[in-house]
């Protein structure tokens, strides 16, 4: 230990007194490692972010009450909608007792005509372009929702006070006695857990690979320093320990820089939102165990990586033997990590399903890490073998190839992080594409028939129904509106929808043909046959669920619902106005309207919402969608997409630092080339060639590994093999684009290094 302490102290002094070159190497290492540390700290904060977000959303959830109302009872009605394409958490509330329960972050329940809003909602109301929002919610703001009542700082959230809610079975509201979800989270099913584990591995392994590359910055200068130490009498062990001091110092500085990056990003995170997800700065708290693991493991790993790298270098008093011809890299041991990783994953084929089975997360994580890390281990061998057989070409290509042949390992390390990131992204893309159908449920709605559904649960007669339709038609972009009264019909225990509307509306609803006023239709689907004409029925109409007895006329016509109707998975009884007048149905019924509109305009949906709110702010407006996505699956998909973008940005910035460090080490050869008359354009093209060759090889290897790994994971879920080649091409292109952009950004530095002053040495 005394020897280690003495030699490390010597290495630190050599860095401190090594002049501008040593400090430049230390700075580049600190920045490169710091970028990786910042992302690792962000990953260590994910458990806290998810926990805090779930706690806040569960605390404001609805605890539906049973029994008689109490002094704390509240009627509530969700009115979730959109504003400028982002979700709005809206809830109408009405107190039933003298001391109504209040949701988290709210000091008192708003009364009729009042509302309590989130800070971002208030800012949108006060903004110059907030006219549509102010018109949609003509309420008086009486309070602001605190942080404990919001899912994130940029959430649009509002509680609207009302006195028109009713809590019957078919009423427009439900009752609660206290806020907070009583049911615990069931967690993730095995397939979704597999996706999450793969996503974490695909995000963090590239970061670890780059950090391992960053601690080797300045290796050539350290090797020359070892030769000088050998010349004054130091043995090889001493020189290696001394050389590892610079890597240790760079890792420690990287921890400080990374913490600074993390804290700076923490201050800015509340200004960002992605797919309606935003995060409070206080939520970004790294898990203590993971943070300590990063703080302790990174310096230790830096020293170990340096010692392992120095085993291939023989620093002697008269020079560094590394510059002579070395043995060719061997393949067999580089195949061990991916083969062992696949050996851990392949036996799990067919054992991971949504409905059953369990996931051994440790075994799966180990297998994924070994396969992805094995990609980085295989890349140097692949680059060496390919460039060793290359030759000929122009001057630019020849310069690049000779440089790669002299140091193929350095070129492979440069692109190893992006290679692993692309391999993981392709595997993730393949797994997502294969299992997504299990988390997407059809709504049996046809967006081609209508683009929005408007629901007014007030009991309205034909005149009010026509007024609602006319108000919606005045909204810019609306082409047609079909408004009808709705209720429920039962034949025994079999239920269906009751619809009252004119013939044009009935055609839009179910695609019936040959309609005339006075007709009655019974429609169904292949799975739900239509009710038989002449059947005795029970009708439920209005908010109070009035029960009416009625027999379907024997003259009613039976039809199969059109495949292109708006809502295609329900049996129904359809009545024209004259037929409804001859039935026991009251003229006033709740109203639904189908809206055909061009919603490609970003403000078209906002205008439609505002037009409905002019009639009544509690009217529901809903987009027509052909399918819905499981909420947890959507959250995981969004989180991994955010993480992928963050990793790509960090890898790109880190790659820029790596390339600049390598160019700095080559500044004298570049200046000599310029002194001999080599054109700047030739040198620039050689730099592009030197980057393009290992990038192409790395991406080819990434596609192979990603496709194989994705296929193995799909077999684990018992899903058929299917590859989204367009998505794979997009991921590969994004990785190549990042590398080419970084290379282009380094060209100005190349021009500066070609100046004659760069040939100066000591």
UniProtKB/TrEMBL annotation:
The keyword Transmembrane helix applies. The chain crosses the membrane at residues 26-50, 191-215, 247-269, 289-310, 331-350, 362-383, 418-439, 640-660, 687-713, 725-751. It comes from the Bacteria. It is a multi-pass membrane protein. Residues 201-314, 643-747 form the ABC3 transporter permease C-terminal domain. It is found in: Cell membrane. Its main location: membrane. InterPro entries: ABC3_permease_C, Membrane_comp_ABC_pdt. The keyword Chaperone does not apply. GO terms for cellular component: plasma membrane. Keywords: Cell membrane, Membrane, Transmembrane, Transmembrane helix. This is Membrane protein. It comes from Actinocatenispora rupis. The lineage of its organism: Bacteria, Bacillati, Actinomycetota, Actinomycetes, Micromonosporales.
